[in-house]
Design brief:
This protein has 21 helices and 31 strands. The chain is an alpha/beta fold. The structure holds adenosine-5'-monophosphate-propyl ester.
C-alpha cells in the first residue's frame, strides 16, 4: 500500500502543545499500566462532594459482569458545570446563542446568569413534581433553554432523555413510553433554516400514544400558536414566575444515572443508552480539553444538535465542566447561504470548531468562495465527528477552511462511549486524512478477526475495546441483558464497537465503518430494522429490506426494497406515499433515497434475506455478487438487477 499522506505537527504546535508526542506516550502508558492511580489523579479535575477512593471496578465477563467508576464518590454534575466556576469565572460568558436567522438577536449568558437560569428551571421542575430519579423527556429546539433543561435535571438528580427535535410524534412516543417518562419539556415550536418545526403539536400527537405522560412544560420560543391542555400543559414562563433563583444541587452518587439517550442498533427498537454521573463527566471534560487543546478563554463551537450524544458531551457537559465559552447555534450550516457557518466563526471569534463531514461535503459543493470571503483568523483547531471523513473533505477543511494552519481532529466515538475514544491530540500526533490516529488515555483498542483472534501490527478487522473507561455506558435502560448481549457476547470479555477498523504500520487507526446493519446517514445512526418495521406497517407492504448505499454528501443513503401485498399496483405515487410514510413514522432523517419494488427478495433456503446481494445491487455493483447458488430462487436476482433504482 502507498505511504499515506501525512501532515506532521507544525513547529508552532510543537511549541504550544499541552501534550506533545512524548507527553502523550507517558500519559497513555500510565493510563494503561496503572489505571487505578491514573484515574484517581484525573478525578481531581472535578469538584467532588465526597472524593472517590476507588477508580474503575469492572468485569466484561458474563459471570461477573459489572461496570463501575468512582463508585464511592459523590458529586453533582450541574454544580461542576456551573457553581464551581462562579468564584473565578462568574462574569465569563458561558453560552453565546446564535439564532437561526442572522437578523435576530444573539443571546449571551455568563456563568452567573447560567446559574440563575438553571436554578429557576430546576425549581420549576420541582414545582411540577419532578423528583430525583424521575425521567424527563426533553424535545427542544437549539435554544439556551434546552441546555438549561439538561442542567436543571442534573441539578435535582432527574434523569433526562433528550429526543432529537427532528423525530416524529411516533418516535417520540416510543421513547417516552420506554423510559416511563411522566414529564416532557418542549417549546411551542423550533426554527431551522427559516422554517418552523411544530414541536408542541408533535408532543400533543405523541401524548395520545403515551398515557404515562402527565405534564408538558412548554417554553415560548417563537410565539407560534399552540393549544394548551388544561391540567397537563404548563407554560414555562408562567411557572417560572415567583420561583426562587437558587436551588440546592442534589448530592449524587458517581454511579447515579445522569441521562438516557436512545440510539439505533442493528435489531429491534432503539436502545436507551444510560450514562451515569462521575465517570461520564470526567471523560467528557478530559477529552474536550485534550482533543481540542482547550485553553481558558477560548471560544468553542460544536455545531451539533443537543438531540445527539455530540451535543450532550461537547456542547453541554464537557465544555461547561471546563468553564469554556460555548457557542450554541439554532440553525443549519448553509442557511441563509453557504457562508453562514464561517460568518458565525468571525462574528464570535471562534477558536475551536467541531462539525461533521456531511456538513463539510455539503458546503464544499458550493465552492471555496463562500469560505474565502470570510476571515476565519480566530480558528485554531478544527474537529470532525460522526462518520469516516473522506480525504477530499479532510483536505478542504484543512486547506480552505483552516488555511493550512489548524490541525484536523478526527474524533471516533459512539453514543455508547460517552466521549472521544480515538483522536489525534493537536501537537502530539502527525495527521493523516481519514485516520482518527491514536487512542485516548485509558482506551485499549484491539483489532480482531472474525474468530476473535487479536491481530497485531498492521491489520484490519473488527474494532473492540479491551478495557473499561470512565465514560462507558452502564446499561440499556430497562434491559441489562440486552446491554450484555449487544456489546459483550460477540467477543467474550471485550466491548464490541460494531465498527471495522484498520491499523497501519505506524499504529494509527482508520475506522472503516459499521459492520452491522446500521446505516450512517449524515452522521446519524439509523437501524435498517427500524426503517423496515416502519415500511411493513403500511397496508400495501408485505415485506421490506433496507440497506445503505454510498451517498456523496450524506455518506450513506437509505435504499429500500419493498414487496407489495398481492393485488397492490406498484406506482410512483405509491413510492412517494411510502417515503412520506417513513418520514411520518420515524422522522426526516429516515427518508429513503430510493425505493425499489421487488416481487420477491433474495433469500436462502432457510428464509434469510441475503443483504450482501441487496447492498451490491443498490450500489450498482453487480459484477461481483458472489455465490448466489444458495438462494431459494436465483432468478429473483436478475429481476432486481434489471429494476435497480439509480
Ligand atoms: O460508525 C461509527 C461512526 O458513528 C458511529 C456512532 O454513531 P453515534 O452513536 O450516533 O455517535 C456519533 C457521534 C459520536 C460509530 O460506530 N463514527 C463516529 N465518529 C466517527 C465515525 N466513523 C468514522 N470516523 C469517525 N470520526
Amino acid at each position: 500500500m502507498a505511504e499515506p499522506e501525512r501532515y506532521p505537527v507544525s513547529d508552532e504546535w510543537k511549541k504550544r502543545a499541552r501534550v506533545d508526542a512524548g507527553g502523550y506516550e507517558t500519559l497513555y502508558g500510565r493510563s494503561i499500566a496503572d489505571p487505578g492511580s491514573f484515574w484517581l489523579e484525573q478525578a481531581r479535575r472535578l469538584d467532588w462532594i465526597k472524593r472517590p477512593e476507588i477508580a474503575g471496578d469492572w468485569s466484561f465477563d458474563e459471570a461477573d459482569f459489572h461496570i463501575e467508576w468512582f463508585a464511592d464518590g459523590k458529586l453533582n454534575v450541574a454544580a461542576n458545570c456551573i457553581d464551581r466556576h462562579l468564584a473565578t469565572r462568574g462574569d465569563t460568558t458561558a453560552i453565546i446563542w446564535e439564532p437561526d436567522d442572522p437578523k435576530d438577536s444573539v443571546r449571551t449568558y455568563t456563568y452567573r446568569e447560567l446559574h440563575r437560569e438553571v436554578c429557576r428551571f430546576a425549581n420549576v421542575l420541582k414545582g411540577q413534581g419532578v423528583q430525583k430519579g424521575d425521567r424527563v423527556t426533553i424535545y427542544m429546539p437549539m435554544i439556551p433553554e434546552a441546555a438549561f433543561a439538561l442542567l436543571a435535571c442534573a441539578r435535582i438528580g432527574a434523569i433526562h432523555s433528550v429526543v432529537f427535535g427532528g423525530f416524529s410524534p411516533d418516535a417520540l412516543a416510543g421513547r417516552i413510553v420506554d423510559c416511563d417518562s411522566a414529564y416532557v419539556i418542549t417549546a411551542d415550536a423550533g426554527r431551522r433554516a427559516g422554517k418552523m418545526v411544530p414541536l408542541k403539536t408533535n408532543v400533543d400527537k405523541a401524548a395520545d400514544q403515551a398515557p404515562v405522560l402527565k405534564k408538558v412544560i412548554v417554553v415560548q420560543a417563537t410565539g407560534a400558536d399552540v393549544t394548551m391542555k388544561d391540567g397537563r400543559d404548563v407554560w414555562y414562563h408562567e411557572a417560572a414566575q415567583g420561583v426562587g433563583e437558587d436551588c440546592p444541587a442534589e448530592a449524587m452518587d458517581a454511579e447515579d444515572p445522569l441521562f438516557i439517550l436512545y440510539t439505533s442498533g442493528s435489531t429491534g427498537k432503539p436502545k436507551g443508552v444510560l450514562h451515569t454521573s462521575g465517570g461520564y463527566l470526567l471523560w467528557t471534560s478530559l477529552t474536550h480539553e485534550l482533543a481540542f487543546d482547550y485553553r481558558e478563554g477560548d471560544v468553542y463551537w460544536c455545531a451539533a444538535d443537543i438531540g445527539w450524544i455530540t451535543g450532550h458531551s461537547y456542547i453541554v457537559y464537557g465544555p461547561l465542566a471546563n468553564g469554556a465559552t460555548v457557542v450554541m447555534y439554532e440553525g443549519v450550516p448553509n442557511w441563509p447561504d453557504s457562508s453562514r457557518i464561517w460568518q458565525v466563526v468571525d462574528k464570535h471569534q471562534v477558536n475551536i470548531l467541531y462539525t461533521a463531514p456531511t456538513a463539510l461535503r455539503a458546503l464544499m459543493a458550493d465552492g471555496d468562495e463562500p469560505v474565502k470571503k470570510t476571515s476565519r483568523a480566530s480558528l485554531r483547531v478544527l474537529g470532525t465527528v460522526g462518520e469516516p471523513i473522506n480525504p477530499e473533505a479532510w483536505r478542504w477543511y484543512y486547506n480552505v477552511v483552516g488555511d493550512g494552519r489548524c490541525p484536523i481532529i478526527d474524533t471516533w466515538w459512539q453514543t455508547e462511549t460517552g466521549g472521544h475514544m480515538i483522536a489525534p491530540l493537536p501537537g502530539a500526533h502527525d495527521l493523516k486524512p481519514g485516520s482518527a490516529t491514536r487512542p485516548m488515555p485509558g482506551v485499549d483498542p484491539q483489532i480482531l478477526d472474525a474468530d476473535g483472534n487479536v491481530l497485531t501490527g498492521a491489520a484490519q478487522g473488527n474494532l473492540v475495546i479491551a478495557k473499561s473507561w470512565p465514560g462507558q455506558m452502564r446499561t440499556v435502560w430497562n434491559d441489562h441483558e440486552r446491554f450484555f448481549q449487544t456489546y459483550f457476547s460477540t467477543y467474550p470479555g471485550k466491548y464490541f464497537t460494531s465498527d471495522g477498523a484498520r491499523r497501519d504500520a505506524d499504529g494509527d487507526y482508520w475506522i472503516t465503518g459499521r459492520v452491522d446493519d446500521v446505516i450512517n446517514v449524515s452522521g446519524h445512526r439509523m437501524g435498517t430494522a427500524e426503517v423496515e418495521s416502519a415500511l411493513v406497517l403500511h397496508e400495501s407492504v408485505a415485506e421490506a429490506a433496507v440497506v445503505g448505499r454510498p451517498h456523496e454528501v450524506k455518506g450513506q443513503g437509505i435504499y429500500a426494497y419493498v414487496t407489495l401485498n398481492s393485488g397492490v399496483e406498484a406506482s410512483d405515487d405509491l413510492r412517494r406515499t411510502l417515503v412520506q410514510w417513513v418520514r411520518d413514522e420515524i422522522g426526516p432523517i429516515a427518508t429513503p433515497e430510493a425505493i425499489q419494488f421487488a416481487p420477491s427478495l433474495p433469500k436462502t433456503r432457510s428464509g434469510k434475506i441475503m443483504r450482501r446481494i441487496l447492498r451490491k445491487i443498490a450500489e450498482g455493483d453487480t459484477s461481483s455478487l458472489g455465490d448466489t447458488s444458495t438462494l431459494a430462487d436465483p432468478d429473483v436476482v436478475d429481476h432486481l438487477i434489471e429494476n435497480g433504482v439509480a
